[in-house]
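fwd from M.: "can u put these together and see what the complex looks like"

so here's what she sent:
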Amino acid sequence: MEKILVGLKRVVDYNVRVQVKSDGSGVETDGVKMSINPFDEIALEEALRIRERGDANEVVVVSIGSSESQQQLRTGLAMGADRAILVETASSTDALTVARVFRTIIDRENADLVILGKQAIDDDNSQTGQMLAALWGRPQATFASELTFDGTTAKVTREVDAGLETLEIDLPAVITVDLRLNEPRYVKLPDIMKAKKKPLDTIPLADLGVDGAPEVKETAYKPPEGRQRGIMVEDVAGLVAALNDKGLL
Amino acid sequence: MSKVLVIAEHNGESLNPSTAKSVSCATQIDGATVDVAVFGSSVAGVAQEAAELNGVARVLSVEREENDPAIAAILAPQIVALAGDYSHVFGPSTTFGKDLMPRVAALLGVNQISDIMSVEGSHSFKRPVYAGNAIVSVDAPADSIVIATVRTASYQAADRGNNAPIEAASVDAELPTHTRFVELRTGSSDRPDLQAAARVVSGGRALASEENFELIYKLADKLGAAIGSSRAAVDAGYVPPETQVGQTGQIIAPDLYIAIGISGAIQHITGIKDAGTIVAINKDEEAPIFEVSDIGLVGDLFTVVPELTDALG
């Protein structure tokens, strides 16, 4: 295949303990470390491996968001992507709008395959890939843990609740990736220097002519109701007694 | 007046418990009429199970060869064809529903609401974000159909005792052939299903090998429990991926959850916070798992777990 698109979302870093703002308008992001959504890194790693073994010629990374998302795109370029596209918007975008944006980018780029993370670790939605496949009228293989290509088809093993499911899909298609597909490479300093020279195009969202989706309004954020710390027991006998007290044995 | 269509999850033989939980969520909408749609090739038995769920007004069975086994790209256009009669379409937030429902939503031109944990009104819901570190209230647009997945750990299964009518529905939809099922490999296990089990025994990285997980299996078998695990244990190859509990694995709510050698990363806690009682066994007294456990025991799992297994007779 010729071209793979990979989505990179800028999110609060995996290791940050997220705090809800006191006014309930969202979560604290001031001064918080931001990174590529970890599933998207796995998506990019897979695309790079497909290109490196000669099954694709070009990997293009795409992000939708503010100009700050350039940082994540540069990291993607340093990992080895050939080009980057930032669809710039100051406002937050919902999953259907993001899927519609990707749909237009597919046409502009004539992409053969789109690889995305299975979910973003901020909104935990797990929607964009499935929506994009629907709008494109093409196959979706979500939660992928293994994939192989054979000309115009792909075989994808998916991590489902019951075990491992394998689908055969015709290309072009959308694949969303799970944790165990691969381990993303580390970026080396020379690659960061090289990435500065790679093309990063910015397209204002308004220029794409994408229709806005009916809005799901977020009205308030709250911290979760925590569980209370319970009792400590000294030994197994104490544990069995405590379980008996609760009527659990 | 809300009309909710719940998409049943099943394996061709029996209804997945996620369906009864999704029905419970749907009945929380004031005055809602709740129907269940069962897609498959031969679904009489599964449809009968759905008809027995309290709160269900009607079961629609949609039998086509192509519907077995379920493939999102094939089910989605059929659900869209049925959706015109409904104000809401719900699926479970399992890998089945998460795969399927966004495809339905996009075909209908609406956003989807993931992981409903609480119904606040016909178009108002609460859902977890940031691995459960925040709960967000959302309002879906009043003039559009609501497509959503239900966080099954937040709901008890609807009771049985009903006898709702079952109707064969014929659905006019063009089905794609671009996606083909090859196989499903399941961990051949006689143990209870992780989602449905009342008791779960879960092991983490501290087990240190696949062989040592035998300790977990023995305790689980004594308790009639399902097997769970942390991401670290799965990544290390000690247990298969379908056992993983947490933000990116399964979210469960058993009556009893026993976490053994699991430190309790927030991503793991988010998968168990609705459990009835959490027991933690860990040699590190500072482990965060103790912050959320009801009963904690600091000790070496390699001595504590066999002792516990023996103590259970």
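replying to her w this: Chain A has one domain: 3-245.
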